[in-house]
Amino acid sequence: MIPFKFNCRAVNVEHSCRYKNENEPNHQPELLRCIERIVEATQGMPYNGIIKSSANSYQIDFDFDSSWIKVVNDADWKSKTLNNLQDLRGIPNIKPDTLLFKDDITVTVEIEKSNKKTIWFDIIKIMMLIGQGLSKYGVLVTPRNYAHKIGVWDLFSEARYYKWCLAQFAKVDSCLLSKIAIIGYTQEAKIDGNWEQLDSSIVKSIKGKASQHFSQKYPSVA
Q1: Which domain does 153 fall in, by range?
Q2: pTM of the shown model
Q3: Three-class SS string for 56-116?
């Protein structure tokens, strides 16, 4: 079965860890330079949406992670995945999406595209890897508009709120939290030649096109 594919892009990419009226944390200059380069490199980044079959109500997958890692690699960073559990130094099964290396700086990267509840674990995972000396800083990448059939979740806002909660209620050290940056982006899909922000109606339209594609038995694009 030939998958149904459609073009996507990440726009309005920005860094912000500030929640409501609080001030932006004092990130280290080298982390700020890292963030600025990542934002610049991933602004407008293309990636693909893929529906492989009608299973799970035409479930949509995105190749955002691999596209993001490739773009950042092309921007002079080197990425590495932790395939060897020995690298984890006593915290097995805590694997980041990737580690970035440049100028003796190591950055843990977590990309969370859809599940706001796992953002808690993503932040904790970054703190664990920093605490174990596997990385100096961490970056969490999340969309503003994860669209599902009944609405849209703003994971970028959720991530900043959870980070604020860790400082306010869990009393996590502010110096440690300042080593973690949050980057948000808006998802757009190209539908009938036009770029549209992903929302419930656009997702419904995409799945309708996928249904036609699979019934026609030949390749199609949005």
Answers
A1: 4-216
A2: 0.93
A3: HHHCEEECHHHHHHHHHHHCCCEEECCCCHHHHCCCCCCCCCEEEEECCEEEEEEECCCCH
